[in-house]
Every structure is written in structure tokens, then in C-alpha cells.
Amino acid sequence: AKTHYHDFVIQATSVKRLCKIHNIITVNGKFPGPTLEVNNGDTLVVNVVNRARYNVTIHWHGVKQMRTGWADGPEFITQCPIRPGKSYTYRFTIQEQEGTLWWHAHSSWLRATVYGALIINPKEGEIYPFPKPKRETPILLGEWWNTNPIDVVRQATRTGAAPNLSDAYTINSQPGDLYKCSRQDTTVVHIDSGETNLLRVINAALNQQLFFAVANHKLTVVGADASYVKPFTTSVLMLGPGQTTDVLIKADQQPARYYMAARAYASAQGAPFDDTTTTAILEYNTASCSSNCVKTKPVFPSLPEYNDTATATAFTTKFRSPRKVEVPKEIDENLFFTVGLGLENCPRGAPSSYCQGPSGTRFTASMNNVSFVLPSNNSLLQAHYQGIPGVFSTDFPAVPPVKFDYTGNVSQSLWQPIRGTKLYKLKYGARVQVVLQGTSIFSAENHPIHLHGYDFYIIAEGFGNFNPKTDTSKFNLIDPPLRNTASVPVNGWTVIRFVANNPGVWLMHCHLDVHITWGLAMAFLVENGVCELESLEAPPVDLPVC
Ligand code: C2O
């Protein structure tokens, strides 16, 4: 196994998008940021130097960080932010993960522009479980605002209203042909007739689940979230923010140019969303194509309607592990967490400009009625490691404090969560099941729920209220997929299982940034086991302090 050294300089960079020049935060002046490529088993050492005006941290999304929680990155969870002018070196090893992950800023909404691909090839000397494709292309789906994303989040938190909608979606940071001033820079992916390309599709958008398709071409899904899956063929993908999907695409059509396109899967009823479509071009490399088809309009794919939950669900339920896997059959922790939005009353005396939600309220979100509050004077991991009291409590409820019809209309008294920095404590090695139950308080939506520090099995999903008596018959304990982000369906539920074998403090949250800002998060505190190999490592000497 190798060790790879990288320098990430966080800096302001000017880019032109949608006819205007913007100053954005980037890594090394690149947008999207640098692609990191390693083999399973390799170690990464990334020295992050902050030359921007904002605090920053970098999260390696989906990397299990076995015993190295200090390198996980979410600000105030596993570290204090890297202040302007300061630096921090993330050091971690990839263990038993192959495929596509990514990295992104985990500080305010900086990940809008601070993100890139992390490609994990098979262990040295080993091969893919499918024929090796001729080419491989990362496809990063993103979201673009004409204003600084920090201002977008400030506007949302100051006014208590929903944030501004994005002005474009992007593929490899380019909006594409359908947006003004964007045609010239549209992303082009070249392909030879007959060859196969591996597209590593990553949803790096801030607040939007996306459908993705390529005109006239079938996509064969072979992996997701850096685990292989039993291959299946589809004409459309749906990815929640945080999720990755590896697909093989074969150039078996007339040599021509074809659009790849992505647009919103907006499950929330009646909520406004950015309904624009981003495109890139798949271009066959033939003499006839370069002389002729460049002049003709590319073929456009058919994409599902924005509210096509049937297509989204048909896709997410197709995933299987390639073989029988070791899902915990017995469970020690039977947890039931509600995930959803809410509204809170305007704080007494607050100006009305501060409360622009419906009827003078503010938007909020919670799990089990707790709206998560980040600490500001320490990180949870440091407080845990050093035994500093008062930073968090470990009374996050195992089940909702009140039972109600989660997917029906509920009384307003249920809308208001309490605020707190509450963790749920797990013994080392505990076998954990979490039912993630979507609520329709205020608004029913899909929620892409991401767990740090672990991959988990998705053993079932369904609509309505989870029924522990009958829905257990739907559990797949044979070959469920291994993921790090689960799409909890609108007005429905998802059940996940994992073994708590990675000590530390691990955030679990909705990967729609607006929802994490409103508090749709909690964290697990996983205790050390008995020996050193079952314990959190000591913090690095350069760990940023608050
Ligand atoms: Cu990809 Cu907590 O994030």
C-alpha cells in the first residue's frame, strides 16, 4: 500500500458562470477541486492550508475513518475549524472500500464550491468485478448560486425563511448549453464507438436530489458509495446529495452527440425548487462526428417529472450487494428516529424580519423532536476524549418522545422541537438497527440521511408509518446494499443496520444542507472497546483548537 501526499490550499478564485464573474472559494484554484485517486488500502495525507477569509474544514465523505475520527472533518463535531491563515493535516487509510467517494468542505455552506472526487481503485494487483472499462470519467453534479453561498445561508438563518433557490445545476462545475452564457464551456465527455466508459456520478448539490440520464444509452449500475452492487441496467439514476453511483455506459449507438442531463427530483409537495436542467455532452470520436455532428443539436434524454416518486423509488430499491453479506441478524440497539421539518414560534421580541416562515414562524428541523445545535467552543470529539463536561449530553431519545401519525396531518403542538446537543451512546461492537421514519410535519419530503464513520446496510424501505409487526417481513438480511447515505422516501421510512465497531463521535444528518442548518442531525458517541485496536487513536498534534 502507498501513501499519497497532497496540499489543499483553500483560496478565493474568480470564475465566470451565467455571464458574471464571481469570487468563490476553491481548493488550489480548481473548480471542481482536485480529483484524488488511490488504491484500496492506501493512506492519504492531505495538508489543508486556509488562505481564505472563512473558517473551513474538509470532510472525506464516506471514508470510514476507522479509529481516526480526528480526520473526519465536520466542524465542531470532530475538530474545531481551521481558521484563516492556519493549517491542518488530515491523515487516514482507506479500508475495504472500492469505487467512488468524494470530499467536501464541512463548514457552513462552503461545500457549494469546495468539493471534488475521491476515486478508490481495487487493491494493488486486484481487478474490478466487471470487465475493465476503456475510460473512466468523474461526473460531479453541483448546484450554483449567483450570490456567495455564505450569503445564501446567512439570509436563510437570519430571516428564518427558506433559502434562495439555486440559479443553476452543474456537471463538473459547468451549467451547460441550456443556461445563458454557458454553451462554450459545456462539459464534453469523449467516447470511441464500441468502447465502455465508467461514469463515476457524484451528487455534490447542496439542497437537491437529482435525476440523471444520457440520451439513447442504457446505464449499468456496478457500484454506489464505494461498494460494489449486483449489476443492473437502468435508463435513469436518482441521487440524493452525498450519494455516488458508478455506471458503465457502452458506446453502442450511432456516432453522434448525446446530452447527459440532470434535473431536480423535488419530492416536497408545493415547495418551490430550481426547475432548470444541466447538461453535458457525450461525443463519439469519429471523423464523421467531429466534422458533422458537432454542428447538429445533440439528442436530449427523457428525464422523469420533478415529482416522479415512483421512478425514484423503483431505482433506489433495485440495489443489492453482489453476494451474500454479513448483516447483523440479532440487534442490541433497536432505534426509531423521526426525520422531518417543523416550525418554531418567533422568539419573544425578535423583529419580524427574523421570522419569515409561514404565519410569522421560523423553519426548523429535527430528529426525534430534537433540533441539533452545534457547539461553538469545542468539538464534540475533543470534549469526549478529554472528558470536558457541558459540551453535550448523551440523552438523545432511542424512540420519539410522542407517538403520532407520522405521515398524516398533525396538530401544531407537535411542530416545535426542543433544541439541544444530544448524542446517543453506543457500546463498542453494538449491533444497531435504526428505523428512519420521515414525518410530514409542515412538509413531507425525501431526506438523504448520511452517517459519518460507517457504511450501513439498507435492509428495507417503504411508505407510510413503519409497522414493527408487519414490515419486518420486508427485511432483506441476505444481500442488502452497503451505503453511507440512505434516501428516506417522502412519507415513508428506511431501515438500516450496522455494527458500532468504530469508536468516536459520528454525525448523522440530512445531506440537504438547508435541513442540517435547521437542525436535522444527531450524533452517535461510540465508546472504545477493550484493547488498543478497538480504541480511538490519540489526536494529531496540529488538531485545530477553538
Ligand atoms: Cu457529506 Cu456530514 O457530510
UniProtKB/TrEMBL annotation:
UniProt key word Signal: yes
GO biological process: lignin catabolic process
Catalytic reaction equation(s): 4 hydroquinone + O2 = 4 benzosemiquinone + 2 H2O
GO MF assignments: copper ion binding; hydroquinone:oxygen oxidoreductase activity
Cofactor annotation: Cu cation
Record's cofactor remark: Binds 4 Cu cations per monomer.
Domain Plastocyanin-like span(s) in chain numbering: 10-124, 136-286, 396-528
Gene Ontology terms: cellular component: apoplast
Main location per the UniProt record: secreted
Subcellular location: Secreted, Extracellular space, Apoplast
EC code: 1.10.3.2
InterPro entries: Cu-oxidase-like_N, Cu-oxidase_2nd, Cu-oxidase_C, Cu-oxidase_fam, Cu_oxidase_CS, Cu_oxidase_Cu_BS, Cupredoxin, CuRO_1_LCC
Alphabetic keyword roster: Apoplast, Copper, Glycoprotein, Lignin degradation, Metal-binding, Oxidoreductase, Repeat, Secreted, Signal
Keyword Repeat: yes
NCBIfam families, sorted: laccase
Role description: Lignin degradation and detoxification of lignin-derived products.
Family: Belongs to the multicopper oxidase family.
Protein name per its UniProtKB record: Laccase
Organism: Solanum verrucosum
